């Protein structure tokens, strides 16, 4: 009978082990998460972000499409707004990144009245053709990036950016 | 460019192109003015981030220069400008929601933007309000870039 009784010492041991185990798991879990998270994130980067742009309303004239997504940087999470220049090329929808290939300013369609059919970078007067090709003699050294696009229920979804495939 | 090590690396290599410092002047109020000053700071920093994104390759956005009612503004201004003039920027734009800088002639060319409380707005509205403001400031910036 006395064998099955839990002595005061045993009881304390068990409880402390329990608490210790709980604490250890509390410390380990975040560590495992940190180790695994980057792997999970790579998958998330391939996600498509919905926009409110109706594909049926697109024309051959590039329009600005804004979208927002959450960005986690370290422990700091913020909501980021992105932009794309979107137009139709025949049946195909083209979405170009507005980030200038020179030093990263935001380019505008027809931003320079002297060149109404080009993208214009206000920072150092960089210019790009409608397909994103940089105009030689201006500072940018390469064409604008392109977004992966997806269409669902007439709404435009934007994916990751990739090097320009139109040129 | 932002005030980060990586962006400043790029700045070091491209100084001829990145020729403008953007310095937000942020008032820290005390007592009853705390919330109002926080709201103004929130607005100004959001706006500054917007401008930075638009003109990333031309500007360096400094961390906010903050001051309280106890600071002697004229002294602050002359100390700041002494340090900034050591840096190779062609243009220095001060952004602030506090009209006294330019009104009292302490920093005569400080760009004053009336503060709009963003805290009660939803994301969409906030975005469009900021865009509106930026659209009004851009001509001011480009005018200075071309005139100096
Ligand atoms: S950043 Fe666009 S031309 Fe320099």
UniProtKB/TrEMBL annotation, chain A:
<keyword id="KW-0001">2Fe-2S</keyword>
<keyword id="KW-0408">Iron</keyword>
<keyword id="KW-0812">Transmembrane</keyword>
<dbReference type="Pfam" id="PF25471">
    <property type="entry name" value="TM_PetC"/>
</dbReference>
<dbReference type="InterPro" id="IPR017941">
    <property type="entry name" value="Rieske_2Fe-2S"/>
</dbReference>
<dbReference type="InterPro" id="IPR014349">
    <property type="entry name" value="Rieske_Fe-S_prot"/>
</dbReference>
<feature type="transmembrane region" description="Helical">
    <location>
        <begin position="12"/>
        <end position="32"/>
    </location>
</feature>
<dbReference type="Pfam" id="PF00355">
    <property type="entry name" value="Rieske"/>
</dbReference>
<dbReference type="InterPro" id="IPR036922">
    <property type="entry name" value="Rieske_2Fe-2S_sf"/>
</dbReference>
<protein>
    <submittedName>
        <fullName>Ubiquinol-cytochrome c reductase iron-sulfur subunit</fullName>
    </submittedName>
</protein>
<keyword id="KW-0411">Iron-sulfur</keyword>
<keyword id="KW-1133">Transmembrane helix</keyword>
<dbReference type="InterPro" id="IPR057415">
    <property type="entry name" value="TM_PetC"/>
</dbReference>
<keyword id="KW-1015">Disulfide bond</keyword>
<dbReference type="InterPro" id="IPR006311">
    <property type="entry name" value="TAT_signal"/>
</dbReference>
<keyword id="KW-0479">Metal-binding</keyword>
<keyword id="KW-0472">Membrane</keyword>
<feature type="domain" description="Rieske">
    <location>
        <begin position="84"/>
        <end position="158"/>
    </location>
</feature>
UniProtKB/TrEMBL annotation, chain B:
<dbReference type="Pfam" id="PF10673">
    <property type="entry name" value="DUF2487"/>
</dbReference>
<protein>
    <submittedName>
        <fullName>YpiF family protein</fullName>
    </submittedName>
</protein>
<dbReference type="InterPro" id="IPR019615">
    <property type="entry name" value="DUF2487"/>
</dbReference>
């Amino acid at each position: 009978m006395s064998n099955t009784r839990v002595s005061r010492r045993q009881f304390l041991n068990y409880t402390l082990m329990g608490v210790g185990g709980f604490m250890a798991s509390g410390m380990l879990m975040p560590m495992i998460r940190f180790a695994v998270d980057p792997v999970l994130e790579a998958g998330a980067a391939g996600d498509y972000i919905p926009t409110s742009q109706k594909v049926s309303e697109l024309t051959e004239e590039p329009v600005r499409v804004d979208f927002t997504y959450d960005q986690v940087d370290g422990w700091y999470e913020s909501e980021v707004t992105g932009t794309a220049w979107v137009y139709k090329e025949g049946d195909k929808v083209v979405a170009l990144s507005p980030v200038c290939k020179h030093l990263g300013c935001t380019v505008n369609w027809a931003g320079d009245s002297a060149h109404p059919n080009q993208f214009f970078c206000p920072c150092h007067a960089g210019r790009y053709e409608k397909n994103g090709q940089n105009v030689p003699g201006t500072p940018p050294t390469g064409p604008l990036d392109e977004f992966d696009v997806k269409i669902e229920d007439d709404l435009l979804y934007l994916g990751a950016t990739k090097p320009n495939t139109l040129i | 460019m932002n005030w980060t090590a990586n962006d400043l690396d790029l700045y070091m290599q491209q100084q001829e192109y990145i020729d403008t410092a953007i310095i937000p002047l942020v008032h820290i109020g005390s007592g009853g003015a705390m919330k109002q000053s926080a709201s103004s700071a929130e607005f100004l920093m959001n706006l500054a981030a917007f401008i930075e994104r638009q003109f990333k390759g031309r500007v360096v956005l400094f961390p906010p220069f903050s001051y309280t009612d106890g600071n002697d503004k004229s002294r602050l201004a002359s100390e700041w400008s002494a340090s900034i003039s050591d840096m190779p920027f062609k243009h220095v734009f001060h952004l602030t929601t506090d009209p006294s800088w330019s009104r009292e002639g302490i920093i005569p060319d400080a760009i004053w933007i009336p503060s709009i409380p963003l805290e009660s707005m939803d994301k969409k509205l906030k975005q469009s309000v900021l865009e509106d403001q930026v659209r009004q400031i851009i001509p001011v910036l480009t005018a200075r870039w071309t005139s100096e």
